[in-house]
Amino acid sequence: MAQHGIKAHEHKLVPLQTRSERPRSTSVNDFAELSNRQEIWRYLPMDRLQGLDAEVIGEVSQNELSISLAGTVTANWIDSSEPIVGSAGLPEDRISAIAWTNASKTLLVEVPTDQEITEPVFLTLKLEELAAKALHIFVKVGANAKATIVLDHIGQGLLAENVEILLEPGAKLDFVSIQDWDNGSSHVSNQLTRLGKDSILKHVVVSLGGDLVRVTPSVALDSPGAEIQMYGVYLADSKNYFEHRPYVDHIAENCVSNVAYKGALQGAGAHTVWVGDVLIRETAIGTNSYELNRNLLLTDGARADSVPNLEIETGKIEGAGHASASGRFDDEQLFYLMARGIGDTEAKRLVVRGFLNEVVQKVGISQVEDRLIASIEQGLEKAGV
Amino acid sequence: MATLEIKNLHVSVDTDQGKKQILRGVDLVVKSGETHAIMGPNGSGKSTLAYSIAGHPKYEITEGEILLDRQNVLEMAVDERAKAGLFLAMQYPVEVPGVSVSNFLRTAKTALDGEAPKLREWIGDLKGAMKNLRMDPDFTERNVNEGFSGGEKKRHEILQLELLKPKIAILDETDSGLDVDALKVVSEGVNRAKEETGLGVLLITHYTRILRYIEPDFVHVFVAGKVAEQGGPELAERLEAEGYDRYLKTEA
Question: Of A42, A125, A195, B130, which has the highest C-beta tally within 10 A?
Fold first, then answer.
């Protein structure tokens, strides 16, 4: 197991002032135990972790992950001590470090240089027991290669996960992470990405089921001209707690980032959290950045927390903006649709589907889109909307 | 043959300063094939009348009746009113993000007819109606009212009027924000619907301009929440010359 040194980590009592000062380490003991008093865990329902925060947990077995490859893409289990592991990023929190140290093997998915793979690769993890397990996946896309990879999480289980994504110069990847767990499941996933010069990553998070789902996708834009599109869509009902914390670190010049997460919530107790961090460093001249989160609350008793954070250390940028809004059904929209003869239920469905559509359409993989639309329909039916 | 009857209609809205009465006893009868112009100064209650007929939840009917072919409209939900044959072309149509015009129109048509329209026929009707209104064919792929210009919004309202074929249509300041060319196109659409389906029209407007293209059979002048005067088309001409001052003075 590769152990990477801790960077600029001091036990200061003052709160961290800038996003980049958050400590990074693969050692569990470099991080304090989880507490709601820490900002990164402040919303988390601790009772739903079900042991995911224990120092020693199990490991996903290889037969729990089915792999459907395409073209010349390869997938191999390698030892986690191989130097490539950790080259896209390091843990910034305790559960990520736990997942790191407990996954002795890493699934390395490689797209060879210059290869354009048209069919999507599917990685489907199906868990069937409530035992805390660790998983590490590394996706490497070679220079000027192009591919689509879908990572699907289904069944019932407890998972602490690290996903690393590394794009070499000029590479293009569409990556989709789907969390569609049965009730009773908990899942904490840290997704670390590093983009080479002029590479383009579309990162899509789809959260549909699970008692606790926490996904923290982060990107280090440290090569010029790289572009990231981060999309998220989620549908939470009374059983679900979904937390998404995208983080974009603009380091190099002329990079582009666009973050858009949209969610619909229904039922008492449904809770979603979105914390979007964008840091534009002094060196990130010519940055163009935008982040957005919108939530639609379909019923009373649901709660959506939405916190956009934008830190800008240089004025020499193309643009930087953020938007966040959570609201009920728009009565004027419903009135307009109903005034054309469309019934109350159908009108609400149109509005919800339309609301989520903006992001659903961005997925661009028909199998995933179809499943997403079916899930939305099912969810609305369940809520009696 | 449809008849819309409005009897002694009193309507209030909730404001920050409490309940405010806007309509104070409106009587009106609109029959198939007839065109009634409702004219009046700003704030006289014209739009309130339109939204009250369509059933907007913001407006509270405190007294009076609205009947369509003797059926009590006030007991109907908003969509039931549309199914009964009422249509409101809105002054400020709202955006419905992520819902395409094509999906919206087909959903509405299906809801009104109780069954999905036959695809080939429907596409033919849609294309024909859009061509008549000089709308670009790719318009149907756009999201409902999203990024529409003022003129596009009004054309889209009239497109719905032509496709959904109501019995009685209320046009709420459909002329506002239109240039002369767009006004002609939109008026032609209304006139086509009148000819083809015997539509009854309640045309709400501040200005007489639209009445050159859609000829009214009756003109009603609205002041302070009720009909202050009514007559034939000649009343509109008089308003054109004199404005509303005469009514406002007597009010004061």
Answer: A195
Q: Determine the pLDDT at residue A8.
A: 42
> What pTM value is reported for the model?
0.81
Q: What is the 3-state secondary structure (H, E, C) of chain A?
A: CCCCCCCCCCCCCCCCCCHHHCCCCCCHHHCCCCCCCCHHHCCCCHHHCCCCCCCCCEECCHHHEEEECCCCCEEEEEECCCCCCCCCCCCCCHHHHHHHHHCCEEEEEEECCCCECCCCEEEEEEEEEEEEEEEEEEEEECCCCEEEEEEEEEEEEEEEEEEEEEECCCCEEEEEEEEECCCCCEEEEEEEEEECCCCEEEEEEEEEECCEEEEEEEEEECCCCCEEEEEEEEEECCCCEEEECCEEEECCCCCEEEEEEEEEECCCCCEEEEEEEEEECCCCCCCEEEEEEEEEECCCCCEEEEEEEEEECCCCCCEEEEEEEEEECCHHHHHHHHCCCCCHHHHHHHHHHHHHHHHHHHHCCHHHHHHHHHHHHHHHHHCCC
Considering only residues B30 and A22, tell me which one the structure prediction assigns the higher pLDDT: B30
Tokens, residue B96: 């419905």
**B171 contacts chain A (CB < 8 A):** no
Q: A83-136: per-residue pLDDT in tens?
A: 999 999 999 999 999 999 999 999 999 999 999 999 999 999 999 999 999 999
Is A338 in contact with B99 (Cβ distance < 8 A)?
Answer: no
Q: Are the CB atoms for B91 and B172 separated by under 8 Å?
A: yes
- Cβ contacts of A342 on chain B, cutoff 8 Å: 79, 107-108, 111
Closest Cβ opposite residue A341 in set B79, B95, B99: B79
B147 near A CB under 8 A: no
Is A354 in Cβ contact with B79 (below 8 Å)?
no
- Is the Cβ pair A347, B99 closer than 8 Å? no
- Minimum-distance CB partner of A333 among B55, B96, B111: B96
The per-residue pLDDT for range B219-234, each reduced to its tens digit, is: 999 999 999 999 999 9
User: End-to-end alpha-carbon separation of chain A, Å?
Assistant: 49
A343 at the B interface (CB within 8 A)?
yes
Task: For an interface test with A, give the residue of B107, B159, B162 to mutate (most A CBs within 10 A).
Answer: B107
The predicted structure's pLDDT at residue B221: 95
**Residue of A328, A331, A334, A337 to mutate for B, most B C-beta atoms under 10 A:** A337
Q: Pick from A342, A355, A357: which is nearest to B79 by CB? A: A342
Distance, in Å, from the CA atom of B210 to the CA atom of B224, rounded to the nearest integer, reads 23
